[in-house]
Design goal:
The complex is a heterodimer.
Chain A lengths: L1 E6 L7 H11 L3 E5 L8 H4 L2 E12 L2 E2 L9 H5 L21 H5 L5 E2 L2 E12 L2 E8 L6 H19 L3 E5 L6 H7 L4 E6 L3 H16 L4 E6 L5 H13 L4 E5 L4 H8 L3 H5 L3 H15 L10
Parallel strand pairs in A: 1-8, 1-9, 2-7, 2-8, 9-10, 10-11
Antiparallel strand pairs in A: 3-6, 4-5, 6-7
Helix pairs in contact in A: 1-11, 5-6, 7-8
Chain B lengths: L1 E5 L7 H11 L4 E5 L7 H5 L2 E15 L9 H5 L5 E4 L2 E4 L9 H5 L5 E16 L2 E8 L7 H8 L7 E5 L6 H7 L4 E6 L3 H17 L3 E6 L7 H9 L3 E5 L3 H8 L4 H4 L2 H17 L1
Helix pairs in contact in B: 1-11, 5-6
The chains are: A alpha/beta, B alpha/beta.
C-alpha cells in the first residue's frame, strides 16, 4: 500500500484541485483529507457520510466556585494567563495542561474532556473517503490528522485498496508534520512567485528533516518563467524531481464552481493533459512503483 | 490600533493586502508577520533587519542525582513529554507545552528548565514601516508561542498590521485574539467561500469587528457576495484578476508602487477600517 501526500507550504497553490484530479485518474484508491482545519476536498468529492465520530481532545479547566477559596494558586501556576481575577477560565487561552486541576488544594477544578471536532467515513463516486472537521478555534489539529490517516490506512487494508491519496494542510507546523510522517511520497505543489519559491524551500527542508521522499509540481508555471526556472534549480539542488508543470488555466476554477474534478469538467483542456502527464511520471517514481490502476 | 489580516483559506492574498496597505499609509506603521510557518511579507517589503533573536520555550530536564523516580512529573503531564520506567526517566522536549507542571509537582526539586528552540524573531524597518516577523524552526510543531512573541512587539502608539496564518485553529486565533479589527481576504470560489465561513465563525467567537476584501473578484461565482450580504459583512475592497497584478506579485513587488492608482484604494480601505473599528 502506498500513500501520496500533497502539500505546498504556501496555501492556495492548487493542492486540493490537483489531489482531486489524481483521484479521478487512479483506481483502487482511498481518499484522505488531512487538511482538517480548512478542509475543501469534500466540495469536489461530494462524500455521502456513512459513519460519523466525535473527536475528543484534551480537557479544559472549569473552576467550581462553591469549592474555590480564592487562594490564587491556580492563577500563579497557569503559564497561559487563562484564569482571570474572578476565577473564570478563558477557554481559548486554556492549554489543557491540567496543572491547576492537579494542584488546587481544594480540588475545586474540574477537567471535562472536550469534543473538538468530528471525523467521517464516506462514500464518493471515486471510492471511500476519510475526512474530518476540526471545531472552530480548536487545538489538536495534529492529533486529528494522525487519527484520520491511521483510520484511512486501516480501511484501505480492509478493503484491499492499493493507494491512499492524501490532501495535506498548508504550512510546516503541527498538522503538516502529522500529515507527512510515513508517507511513500510527498508532492510539493508550488507556484512561480517569490512567495511560492520561499515556502517550497521550507516545506522541502521539512521533508528532508523527516526523511520523506518528495517530488515537485509547478502549478501556473507560465505566470512567471524566471521564477519557474529558479524553482527547477532549487528542486534539482535538493534532488527532488520536478514531475509536473501545469499551465495557468481558468478551467480549474470553472470545474471547482461545478464541484467537479478537472477531468470531469474538461478532460481535453491543456491543464488536464498536463495533469495526466504528471500522473504518469509520478507513478514511475521509485517510491511509488507498484500497480496503480488508470 | 491593531488590524489582523486573515482568511481561512491560504493563498487568497493576505500578504498582498497587508504589505500594500502598510506601504500605502504615509504615517508610521508596524507590520507584524505572524504567519510564522511560512512568512512572506519580508519578500515584498525587503526590510533592513537590525535585530535577530532566537526564541526558546522552556522544557524540562531532570537532575538524576535528585530524582527518586516517583513518577509525579509523568502523571501530571498531559502531553506525554515525560516517561518513567523503574529507574529510568526520559523527557520528550518536542511534545512539551511548557506548562511547568512537572517542575511544580516534583517533591525533590529535581526538575529544572532548559530551552527548546522554536524559531527566530527578526526586526527591522523599511521606509516608514517598522517590521517584525517570526520564522518557525523547520521541524518545530508549535507555532502559537512564537506568534505571541511576535505580538509582544506591538506598539501602542501607532497602527499595527498583523499578517495572520491561514486556517481557523490555534495559530490563527493567536494572531487575531484581542485585535481591534479583522480584515478577511477571500476569493469568490467554492473553496474561498467555504473557508471564509469558517473564518467568520472564528472572528465571531472572538467578538471582533470585521470586514472583507474579495481578491480576484471577477473569477468564480457570486456566492461570496451573497454570503457577505446575508452576513452583513461589509465588502471593503475588490481586487479583480489582472495578469499585471499577478506578475507584480510573482516578482515580489508591491502593487501600490508598480500600479500607483492602487495607493488611493488602499488608503480608502484604511479609512473605512478606522471608521468601522471605532
Amino acid at each position: 500500500m502506498q500513500e501520496l501526500v500533497v502539500i505546498s507550504g504556501k496555501g492556495g497553490t492548487g493542492k486540493t484541485s490537483l489531489t482531486a484530479a489524481f483521484i479521478a485518474l487512479s483506481k483502487k484508491t482511498i481518499i484522505c483529507d488531512a487538511d482538517v482545519d480548512a478542509a475543501d476536498l469534500h466540495l469536489l468529492m461530494a462524500p455521502a457520510i456513512q459513519h460519523r465520530y466525535d473527536f475528543t481532545g484534551g480537557g479544559l479547566a472549569e473552576i467550581n466556585r462553591e469549592k474555590c477559596t480564592g487562594c490564587g494558586l491556580c492563577r500563579t501556576l497557569c503559564r497561559f494567563g487563562a484564569i482571570d481575577e474572578n476565577y473564570g477560565v478563558d477557554p481559548i487561552d486554556c492549554e489543557g495542561c491540567g496543572v491547576c486541576v492537579d494542584l488546587c488544594p481544594e480540588q475545586a477544578i474540574d477537567f471535562p474532556v472536550q469534543t473538538c471536532g468530528e471525523w467521517f467515513i464516506s462514500d464518493t463516486r471515486f471510492g471511500p473517503m476519510v475526512h474530518a472537521k476540526l471545531g472552530i478555534a480548536e487545538e489538536n489539529s495534529g492529533k486529528l490528522v494522525s487519527l484520520i490517516r491511521r483510520k484511512t490506512k486501516e480501511l484501505a487494508g480492509e478493503k484491499g485498496l492499493d493507494l491512499i491519496m492524501t490532501d495535506g494542510p498548508p504550512g510546516i507546523g503541527c498538522p503538516v508534520i502529522a500529515a507527512i510522517g510515513g508517507a511513500s511520497v510527498l508532492l510539493i505543489v508550488t507556484e512561480p512567485s517569490v512567495s511560492g519559491r520561499h515556502d517550497m524551500a521550507r516545506v522541502a527542508d521539512l521533508a528532508t528533516h523527516f526523511n520523506v521522499p518528495a517530488a515537485v509540481c509547478i502549478n501556473k508555471f507560465d505566470l512567471n518563467l524566471d521564477q519557474s526556472t529558479a524553482i527547477e534549480t532549487m528542486a534539482a539542488e535538493r534532488q527532488m524531481p520536478v514531475v509536473g508543470r501545469i499551465p495557468f488555466d481558468p478551467v480549474f476554477t470553472a470545474s471547482m464552481v461545478r464541484g467537479q474534478t478537472v477531468f470531469e469538467y474538461d478532460g481535453n483542456s491543456e491543464a488536464a493533459s498536463a495533469v495526466r502527464h504528471m500522473w504518469k511520471i509520478l507513478k514511475t517514481l521509485p517510491a511509488m512503483k507498484y500497480e496503480v490502476g488508470g | 490600533m491593531i488590524i489582523s489580516i486573515a482568511s481561512g483559506k491560504g493563498g487568497t492574498g493576505k500578504t498582498t493586502v497587508a504589505t500594500n496597505l502598510a506601504s500605502a499609509i504615509d504615517e508610521e506603521v508596524q507590520l507584524l508577520d505572524c504567519d510564522v510557518e511560512e512568512p512572506n511579507a519580508h519578500l515584498f517589503l525587503n526590510p533592513d533587519i537590525r535585530d535577530r533573536e532566537t526564541f526558546f520555550v522552556p522544557v524540562p530536564e531532570i537532575d538524576k542525582a535528585k530524582c527518586t523516580y516517583c513518577k509525579k512529573c509523568a502523571e501530571i503531564c498531559r502531553f506525554n513529554a515525560i516517561a518513567v520506567f523503574n529507574q529510568t526517566i526520559m523527557t520528550f522536549p518536542e511534545l512539551c507545552h511548557s506548562c511547568g507542571g512537572c517542575m511544580a509537582v516534583c517533591p525533590e526539586n529535581a526538575v529544572f528548565e532548559t530551552g527548546r528552540e522554536v524559531g527566530v524573531v527578526e526586526r527591522g524597518e523599511t521606509g516608514s514601516i517598522d517590521f517584525t516577523h517570526g520564522r518557525l524552526r523547520v521541524g518545530e510543531a508549535m507555532s502559537p508561542p512564537l506568534i505571541h512573541k511576535v505580538r509582544s512587539f506591538i506598539r501602542k502608539d501607532i497602527l499595527n498590521i498583523i499578517d495572520a496564518p491561514p486556517g481557523t485553529s490555534c495559530p490563527v486565533i493567536s494572531a487575531m485574539k484581542g485585535v481591534d479589527f479583522v480584515l478577511l481576504v477571500t476569493e469568490p470560489t467554492p473553496f474561498g467561500l467555504h473557508d471564509l465561513k469558517l473564518a467568520v465563525e472564528a472572528v465571531k467567537k472572538l467578538g471582533l469587528p470585521r470586514g472583507l476584501v474579495i481578491n480576484r473578484s471577477d473569477i468564480g461565482d457570486q456566492q461570496v457576495e451573497s454570503y457577505a450580504r446575508a452576513e452583513n459583512l461589509s465588502i471593503l475592497m475588490e481586487i479583480p484578476f489582472d495578469r499585471r497584478i499577478a506578475e507584480v506579485y510573482s516578482r515580489g513587488e508591491l502593487i501600490v508602487n508598480e500600479m500607483p492608482e492602487w495607493k488611493g484604494k488602499f488608503l480608502e480601505l484604511y479609512q473605512n477600517i478606522t471608521e468601522m473599528a471605532g
